[in-house]
Amino acid sequence: MIANRKMTYWMLVLTLLLSVMVPTGVFAATGDINSIKIDGENTTIDLGVGKTKQLKVNASVEGSTATKDVTTTVVWATSDSSIVKVDEGLVTALKSGTATVTASYNNDSTHVGAKSLITIKVTDTYTALTLDYKLDGKYSLDSSASDLTVAAKAKVDNASIEPKDVTADAEWTSSNAGVLTIEKGQITLTGSGEATITAKYAGLTASFKAKVTSPYSGLKLYQVNSSSSEDEIGEKEDLELIMADKEVKLRVKTVMASNSTTTSDVSDKATWASTDNGVATVEDGIVKIVSTGKATITASYLGEQVKVDIYVRAPYETILLTPSGDQTLFIAETLSVSAGVRKTANETTTVTAEWSSSNKLIATVDDNGVISAKAAGSTTINASYQGVSKSFKLTVLPTVTKLEVEKEQLEIFLGGSAGLPKVTGTKLDGETIDLSDEITWTSSNEKYAVVEDGKIITKDLDDKMVSADVTLTGKFSEAGTGLTPNANFPIRGTTVTIKVSVKEKVLTLLASQDSMSIVIGAENALPEVTAVFENGEEQVNPTGVEWTVSGSNAVLKTTADGKKLKGLSKGSATLKATFENKTLSMSVTIEPKISKIVVEPQSFELNIKKSKSIKVTGYYTDGKKVTLSSKMGWVSSDENVVTVSGSSVKAVAEGSVTLTGSYQGQTVTVKVNVIPKLMKLEVSEKKLQLTPGSAKTLVLTATYDNGKVATVTGSATWTSSKTNVAKVSAGKIEAIAKGSTSIKAQYGGKSVSVSVSVK
Predict the structure, then answer these.
(1) Which of 86, 90, 88, 89 is nearest to 99 (CA)?
(2) Which residues constitute the signal peptide according to the record (predicted)?
(3) Distances (CA, A) of 528 to 117, 277, 548
């Protein structure tokens, strides 16, 4: 019993402590609402007057991840019931303005409270836009500003609300800015005619057509003369002016439509314009002449306009300067330039022109046209007089103590060209500058070469010439009329020279052989080279041929007898000869010394049109052999009879030739006899009967493909099948004893037989 009481006591103490330390809400029962939220919470909803919006509230529930719709159970309130009212979440817009709608929830069991807010902005809904304007939209160009106003009003979709003045907020446009413009309801008239004024606001549009008339029948222009009187300028009249006029005064007046004799000077109110301010400018009717040319002067006032064409001419056609053209000076030099004007082709009048320099840091020019070079750079010198002007570029160079040319010798092929080498000048500080453009060049022989447009152009050579030398001389222009040079550094007149070799182009290079075979360790003379030029001239071994050899198997060696080609090791190389614009190449074989060359066969016969190969074997000193058949460079003693290509011999016509070939300095020969082809071999007797001791001589005849018939008895090979019966020699048959034998004759690959019976 006592134990139960103690337990109850401690349970009560624990409960009291927890109630003090832990908030009440912690003990909320499952299913209680923790918080609520209006859809779109803390945002702003726009509603038009008279429109409604149903709001929805969801609550988060203790012990669940799902939400609960409590729209009808929360308490709704509005911050301004005159703007919106709210009933179970249904918001109704009453008038324009902004109000806050609040949803509240209070859980009585746990005393937990929750709120959610949203802002409602109510705007007016307009149904129509109207315009209020004066004078029924019929205006005159002299209408007062108070009559040129338009008010825009927007009708609200609420009979109890007055239309709203939206003049300042509406978008205004005019269909014809040449008649009128409008901004925030204020009309500005610009000319007579009709234009539609339109206002737009909140998606609504309203417009009306305005008509503008002019009280004037037009404008008139007048020129103020020297006596200050005014001369009217006719509608189609032009003003002829010269540069000396400098300034002309114009006036513009209105002509009333109601009375053509009534005018009013509006020169200071009119808008003046010139179509070409480079010719003439105009301000308040004062026209100022700028240069020669045509310009149209226009005066505009209240939609009316009047204009006149003015032509400004110079009293002279042109101005001439002496010296003429662009000029170049050195620092501290001066140049006196004179100016003259010309009316006719042959009449020049010296005048005192107005002189100016575009950059006085570079050079100055005084009233008499004397130019003084001050610093390195460029400037434009201009002379003007009575509407005509002339200018030129002046280049001022730093002081130069000497000239040098980049290249003093050039080679150019005939018909070609080359750029001029750079010419530099040394300044006082030792640095150089490029003066190439300031140098004038002359040629010692313009027949061969000249300088044109900054290039050296080759022209021609005399017959049988393959080259010619020309000297080009370049220098600064010497001091001329009006030029005072810098006496301390007289660079003018200094010259530089270039020696130009004009050469005929090489058409081709020919070598005395196509290939070479050299022995290791031996020095060999280079092949002979012939240069054939485009004009047909030829030179054998011309001076200037450059030889090169590729690889490490051979080397070019300079000896007392000239360059020699020496073999170093077994292999191959390419020997090249270059002369002027052409190069030729030949293959070189480097090998050990060959001690013996054997040719097979050393002589043979060939039928016409038949071919046969020659076999050539070379033997090195170590006994090894090599095939040389195609390397011998065979030459026929008569190519009309036999030709040879590589190791192949071809018979062309009947006859005999000697073929000669060489390798490593060893020469061998082969005899070739060309004969026609044997077609038929005939013997004078086919059968013979002889007695012992008797004899008979036969005749053997050969017929060839060329129709030739020859007796070849002595050249054939004769044999007897039984020499104890009969024997034969050179066609003579001798009977020995009784019996039978066959005598055969062979010649040219053919044979015939004779039957012999000895009785």
Answers:
(1) 86
(2) 1-28
(3) 112, 81, 15
Half-sphere exposure of 56 (CA within 13 A, CB side): 5
> Domain 400-503, what fold?
Immunoglobulin-like (2.60.40)
Measured distance CA(613)–CA(629) in Å, rounded: 8
pLDDT at 561: 85
Distance (Å, rounded) from C-alpha 305 to C-alpha 288?
Answer: 21
The 10s digit of each residue's pLDDT in 126-183 is 888 999 999 999 998 878 889 999 999 988 776 667 888 999 999 999 999 989 999 9
The H or E element that residue 11 is part of is helix 2-21
Domains 126-213 and 594-675 fall in the same CATH topology: yes
- Under DSSP, the state recorded for 479 is P
Is residue 448 a contact partner of residue 415, using CB atoms and an 8 Å limit?
no
User: How far apart, in whole angstroms, are the C-alpha atoms of residue 333 and residue 346?
Assistant: 33
Query: According to the CATH classification, is domain 28-123 in 2.60.40.1080?
Result: yes
Interval 613-669: pLDDT, tens: 999 999 988 888 889 888 888 999 999 999 999 889 999 998 999 999 988 888 999
Among the listed residues 651, 646, 650, 613, the one whose alpha carbon sits nearest the alpha carbon of residue 632:
646
Cβ atoms 53, 89 nearer than 8 A: no
Question: Is the model's pTM score more than 0.70?
Answer: no
Class of domain 318-397: mainly beta
Q: Which CATH number fits domain 678-758: 3.40.50.1000, 2.40.70.10, 2.60.40.2080, 2.60.40.1080?
A: 2.60.40.1080
Q: What residues does each domain of the chain span?
A: 28-123, 126-213, 216-313, 318-397, 400-503, 506-591, 594-675, 678-758
